[in-house]
Specification:
10 helices; binds uridine 5'-triphosphate
């Protein structure tokens, strides 16, 4: 059973400065909740209950967020604000939280490698802490990926992919899909940030992975690449070249990926989530409509 998710949240988030100067990008609000709460709720809904955060300098707000805050609960009760207790229900979700520090920000691949002593040979999920999949945490992508992994004994990794417009492929890790099985495809190769002409497809890596512990061996032997960082995609690529079987799973149409790593997609995600809010959405919609009609 795959019950552990590694959630890297140690990156500096420089593309969101000055917002991220003294707060983690994973704690930025997207309508009513911080990004990383959506990620955790999605994982719990997919049957993953142990969360291992790879944290770093300036990220303690994440630990505080998932703690049970009895002082706050008592104070809400004492001041007659019981109705707000529902907003803290996530603290009591059926999940365990663990924290490890990435002491130097050497890239996503290095952040995952930091989890090795904890993972101890298990199979595990990796969910990027700055990316939401699907509004309202309705995505079951991780569950589909875990099921596939468990069904195919020879598989070493399963990766979520999202179809992106051709003129955006140079921003992502892009799949070279092999045989198509409908619900998933064989991953023949993966290319990091290809040019538009060279891209083997428009399927971009979408922030969710399932790995066997063999990935650590490859990460340990991965040389720093772009920006002097150890790239997760490089390790995956070398495994695929060594004929280790990887599967790709496309996101379904309701499983849009919201990347909170740059301003354009952060603003878009915030607007979309605010519009979908059952309480405040209608008023926001009216206001936006007025602005757009002007
Ligand atoms: P990004 O690739 O967006 O990198 O991280 P970044 O360093 O956070 O952001 P920029 O490029 O400076 O704007 C994707 C995910 O991987 C984590 C981040 O916290 C984010 O959730 N990450 C990245 C780490 O945990 N450690 C790292 O060294 C880099």
């Amino acid at each position: 059973m795959i019950d552990l998710a590694v959630i890297p949240v140690a990156g500096r988030g420089t593309r969101l400065l000055p917002l991220t100067k003294s707060q983690p990008k994973e704690m930025l609000p997207v309508a009513g909740k911080p990004v990383v709460q959506y990620v955790v709720e999605e994982l719990i809904r997919s049957g993953v209950h142990r969360m291992l955060f790879i944290t770093g300098a300036g990220k303690t707000a994440i630990e505080n967020h998932f703690d049970i805050d009895n002082e706050l609960i008592d104070s809400l009760r004492a001041t007659g604000k019981e109705e707000l207790l529902a907003e803290l229900a996530f603290e009591r979700e059926d999940a365990d939280y663990f924290y490890l520090r990435q002491r130097r920000q050497l890239g996503l691949g290095h952040a995952v490698l930091c989890a090795e002593p904890f993972v101890r040979g298990q199979r595990f999920v990796v969910a990027l802490g700055d990316s939401i999949i699907g509004r309202g945490s309705e995505s079951k992508i991780v569950k589909r990926m875990v099921d596939l992994f468990e069904k195919h004994g020879d598989v070493k990794g399963v990766i979520a992919f999202e179809e992106v417009p051709r003129d955006e492929v140079f921003q992502y890790g892009i799949a070279q899909p092999g045989r198509d099985h409908g619900e998933f495809f064989e991953l023949d190769d993966i290319v990091e940030k290809p040019s538009i002409e060279d891209a083997p497809s428009c399927m971009a890596v979408a922030a969710r992975y399932v790995f066997s512990a063999e990935i650590f061996e490859y990460l340990r032997n991965t040389q720093p690449g772009k920006g002097d960082e150890i790239q997760l995609t490089d390790a995956i690529r070398r495994m695929v070249h060594d004929k280790k079987r990887f599967l790709g799973v496309p996101l379904s149409p309701v499983e849009t990926r919201y990347d909170i790593g740059n301003f354009e997609s952060y603003f878009t995600a915030f607007t979309e989530f605010a519009l979908a809010d059952p309480t405040y959405g209608p008023a926001v919609r009216q206001h936006l409509k007025k602005l757009l009609d002007r």
